[in-house]
Design brief:
With 203 residues, the protein is mainly α. Helices cover 60% and strands 4% of the residues. The chain starts with a helix and ends in a 12-residue tail after the last helix.
Length: 203
């Protein structure tokens, strides 16, 4: 795919994001706009939203004890997620180059915009950053895994797959040996034009 086509796709996605934010803003009446891809609240909105912030100590001491006890368990997951994040990045950097498959752009799956919300205290912002990172890693790894599956085993299962990735519908039917052998090359070739929306499913 040419650089111009890639640039146009990026621009379309950026505009789609801006349109989504604008629709959300109109529906909710919140006073903010986008500046360099980041939300910027109007001064009056910032003042009102800051008044809704719960002070950190009050937030901490008003939490149920058992909920507070789970915090170390939740945050301990950062270690395995960081390892998976790093390992999958190394994997695709090595293997996808060999397969001729475009690497997944990790940055597209990391969105930390909620940290700028004035009604969140420091701990809530940390929690939001944690959730953004973990869910971003999951989405990123899922896209890497879907491209890997399309390259090595683009075959549907006999049972319905709950939450199947976007490429799955383009896989070959279970039991269709002729179709699998005939279309495996096409499935792999489709990955050469893959994008991060998972649209290239080989169909």
């Amino acid at each position: 795919m040419s650089n111009r086509v890639d640039a146009l796709i990026d621009r379309i996605r950026s505009l789609e994001h801006e349109l989504e934010v604008e629709f959300s803003k109109q529906r909710s009446g919140f006073q903010f706009g986008l500046e360099h891809g980041r939300a910027r609240f109007e001064e009056e909105a910032i003042r009102r939203l800051t008044e809704r912030r719960t002070r950190l100590l009050k937030y901490v001491f008003s939490s149920p004890l058992l909920v507070a006890v789970t915090a170390p368990v939740i945050y301990s997951l950062l270690i395995p997620f960081a390892v998976v994040d790093l390992w999958v990045s190394i994997y695709q950097a090595v293997c996808f180059r060999v397969y001729g498959t475009p690497q997944v752009r990790r940055g597209r799956y990391m969105n930390f915009d909620r940290n700028g919300l004035p009604y969140l205290n420091a701990l809530e912002k940390l929690n939001c950053a944690y959730c953004s990172y973990v869910n971003g890693v999951i989405a990123y790894v899922r896209e890497v895994a879907s491209r890997t599956e399309q390259y090595w085993c683009p075959i549907k299962h006999t049972r319905r797959v709950v939450g199947a990735h976007a490429r799955y519908d383009g896989f070959e039917d279970f039991g269709d040996g002729d179709g699998y052998r005939h279309h495996l090359g096409r499935q792999r070739e489709a990955l050469r034009t893959a994008d991060d929306a998972g649209e290239a499913a080989g169909s």
